[in-house]
Amino acid sequence: MSIKIPFLKDNHNHLFTYSSIFEKQIDLFNYSNKNNIKKLLQNLSSNSINIATGWLDNYYTFSKEELNSFPPLILIHNSLHKFDFNNSAEKHIVERFPEFVKNKNSQQWIEKNLMKILSFIASLNKFDENSFKNILASLSKNGVSYAADMFVDNIEIFNFLEKTEYKKFTEIWTEVDFYEKLNTNHKNICEGIKIFMDGALGAKSAAISEAKSEWNPILIYSDAEIHNKIEKILMLKKAIAIHCIGDIAIQQIINCLIDLKQSISDTKIRLEHVQFITKEQAFSAKDLGLILSMQPNFNMDSIIYQDRLTKKYCENNNPFRMLINDAGFIPGKDLIFGSDGMPSGVHNAIQTSLFPPIENQKITLEEFVEAYCIENYEKYIEVEISNNKKKTKCKIVEK
Ligand SMILES: [Zn+2]
């Protein structure tokens, strides 16, 4: 049986970061054999800094010696929250961003400076229209016709969107300090303000209360700091997107928004990821009128991160059934989907939604379309579902 669905609107991606960092770079996501990866890395160019993305440290890590045996290399963890580089890359980095060299092993510093780091790495490749076109084309081949960039702090990109017709394919978000310095036109181009509450699972820094292996839960703000920050952002009359993965971080932002309840009613506020949201938190979020922006592909974290997450957390990851059936979230209205680019595209998204590792993560195809698809049917995706094999197959039909 095959069903036609529209292309995806990826509500949480990093389109420009990926088009600058990733397009010409090496992606390790589909490799888990360390020897194969070593061969791949040894053959990189020695004339410029190479950037390898999709590093999964639950499968492999490199010793200092191994890392130094490669040409100049920056290694980016698949979560985008962890980095490493070798001595020959460090020589280039230290001139332009010495704090990065000094603090690359401090997860606290990394989480606080994540935007700065990613935009620094993106700036190692010049941003141009062609690479942007290429990434749009490759997204289209994967069934995506619109993708957000959740943090942009490169003024060239604002200029680019101001002068081109590409605005209809994307929306950009930025951090508050950068936003305040923008001119009026650029402020209008900007969709909203992004804030981080905690770290990530890949870097073992999401704010959860228990873990199997060594964990460093990071809350970026104190309660007073986040209260002041949100109060200040509310005055800007822009949408707000708040990264919070762990239940502790989710609780912190919910408490803050309950305090500010009188002043938030006119503001669109999204909680990003909320992977470990509890039932009680879900009811509070619904009551506050918040939008949950989630990634069905992160259902697989219940498998990938079994090395670090306790059974309780694996089972409570992305509890979509609880959110929809119990807390009353409505797909497409206050429950929206994206990929965070890990990976982008319909294939993984459909498979992990319809046949997730945990029953509570299951999404129906109708719910998927509401939460994840655009309304325009010009291009479409043919989804074949085999309930027996628990497999989905997508054919992309680009007109
Ligand atoms: Zn993101």
- What's the CATH first level of the largest domain? Alpha Beta
| Radius of gyration based on Cα positions | 20 Å
Decide which structural class fits the backbone: alpha/beta
CATH topology of the largest domain: TIM Barrel
List the uncertain runs.
none
Helix percent reads 25-40%
Strand order of the largest sheet: 8-9-10-11-12-13
Please indicate the percent range of residues in DSSP E strands (runs of 2 or more). Answer: 15-25%
- What is the overall number of helices? 20
Q: What compounds sit in this structure?
A: zinc ion
Task: Note the gap between the termini.
Answer: 22 Å
Which architecture of the largest domain would the CATH scheme give at its second level? Answer: Alpha-Beta Barrel
Please name the fourth-level CATH homologous superfamily of the largest domain: Metal-dependent hydrolases
* Total strands: 15
Which whole number gives the mean pLDDT?
Answer: 93
Work out the count of structural domains: 2
The coarse overall form would be globular
Largest sheet: 6 strands, parallel
What would your notes on this structure say?
The chain is of the alpha/beta class and 399 residues long. It has two domains: 25-104; 129-397, TIM Barrel (Alpha-Beta Barrel). The protein contains 20 helices and 15 strands. The strands form four sheets. It has a six-stranded parallel β-sheet. Strand 5 (73-77) and strand 6 form a beta hairpin. Helix 1 (15-22) packs across helix 7 (114-122) and helix 12 packs across helix 13 (247-259). The longest helix has 13 residues, at 129-141. The site of zinc ion has 4 residues, from loops.
